[in-house]
Amino acid sequence: MKIENIKVLKTLLSESRNLIIIPHTNPDGDAIGSCLALSNLLKKSGHNVSLISPNKPPHFLNWTPGFEDILYFDSETKNCEKKIKASELIFTLDFNDLNRIGELGDIVKSSKSKKIMIDHHQNPKDYADLTFSEPEIGSTCELLFEIIISMGYEDLIDQSISKCIYLGIMTDTGSFQYSSVTSRTHQIIAQLIDKGIDQNEIHNKVYNDSSASRLKVLGSALSNMNQIEGLKTAYMFLKRNDLEKFDYQKGDSEGIVNYGLSLKDVIFSVIFIEDINDSNNVKISFRSQGDFSCNEFAGKYFNGGGHGNAAGGRNDGNAEDAINKFLKILPNYKEKLIK
Ligand code: 5GP
Ligand code: MN
Fold first, then answer.
1. Does ligand 1 lie within 6 Å of residue 97's CB atom?
2. Is there a single domain that holds both residue 203 and residue 307?
3. Does the beta carbon of 66 lie inside 6 Å of ligand 1?
4. Helices (H), the chain
5. What is the mean pLDDT of residues 174-194?
């Protein structure tokens, strides 16, 4: 991290009072954790902060400290626009391309406020006045912790802020199992535990709060699983009909794609999920183990991106259309998949 960037951030904060913080659409634990950690911290240092999310996060994040103050652009558009107009600084967290926040992106783009990106995805776009982009760090929350420490604000990190940061590190590392986890990650976790957080409680709130619908959706995806012999790949799908039958709620499908990687000799797992609100859209999640780049694959063929081992994307049409396209492309990657 550039020390110069920390200086610039401190100056910007000292000159500005009205701040906006924005996570990506369909915010996950890292997006919500980092936005709420930053928002709680900046409120403590006397700023006027609005956290504006493009839409609602899944229910298992609703305990995060400060959650009740989040504004939602999709349901409170006018109010959000007013706040952005009155702002001086806009933080964008856990994404690096304004197309990740839908229509809100145009408003941010045309705003006169200074923009600050804090993110850990690959290939950052050049929209911010100040960019903290660290793709080798496993979560935006871990990066944010480092920024807070570099700014000398360690004493402002209380138990609430620690819970938020722990949430993002835990969810973006698959509970500390991915190769992005370093000894530094564990040192940070140790510091958060010393602030008095209950990690078992956070784990239970996020992972052991399933509805029956979530387990049924998982069952449906697993029973639709296909393994592609010779390409070390597995894929699953969820059709709109099934989602409706099982009373699908947002967030129910999160993490299902990882099950594909638990198969012996599978290093690439993909799930195709038909959009319950749009009959011409399929959301796709990609996960890999080792060097196979999900980010590149998702970006090249499925309007998406993300990280080397975890990326997302989308396709027009239904699940079958997306799967057919995928099965046509995949053999071109044989060498990369089986090496
Ligand atoms: P998921 O499959 O869980 O939605 O996303 C996996 C990772 O890829 C996350 O880090 C997420 O932020 C990123 N991601 C998901 N969808 C997109 C997308 O459409 N574009 C880009 N650039 N990244 C995405
Ligand atoms: Mn993240």
1. yes
2. no
3. no
4. 3-15, 29-44, 77-85, 104-110, 140-150, 159-172, 183-194, 199-207, 212-223, 240-245, 258-261, 294-301, 319-329, 334-338
5. 97
